[in-house]
Q: What sequence folds into this?
């Protein structure tokens, strides 16, 4: 169903010996194919600094397939404790 994971290497910032990267994992169901399941941002040392995860309300049973993004959670990981933001959505039928 397309790419499961895509890794993007960012240009090195001044003073960086190794580039940072962003890893995005994609949904692999008929309804949500191509939608991001999670995106993780890594620093030049390979340490995860931020993660954004998505949840979808999916109709995979019958056509037309559909996927509604119902929850997004963003975690900023600078140290301890992790700071999080959670957005919950609802949709009318």
A:
């Amino acid at each position: 169903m397309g790419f499961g994971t895509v890794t993007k290497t960012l240009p090195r910032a001044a003073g960086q010996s190794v580039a940072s990267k962003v890893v995005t994992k994609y949904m692999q169901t008929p309804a949500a194919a191509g939608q991001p399941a999670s995106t993780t941002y890594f620093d030049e040392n390979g340490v995860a600094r931020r993660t954004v995860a998505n949840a979808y309300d999916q109709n995979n049973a019958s056509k037309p397939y559909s996927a509604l993004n119902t929850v997004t959670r963003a975690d900023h990981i600078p140290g301890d404790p992790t700071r999080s933001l959670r957005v919950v959505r609802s949709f009318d039928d």
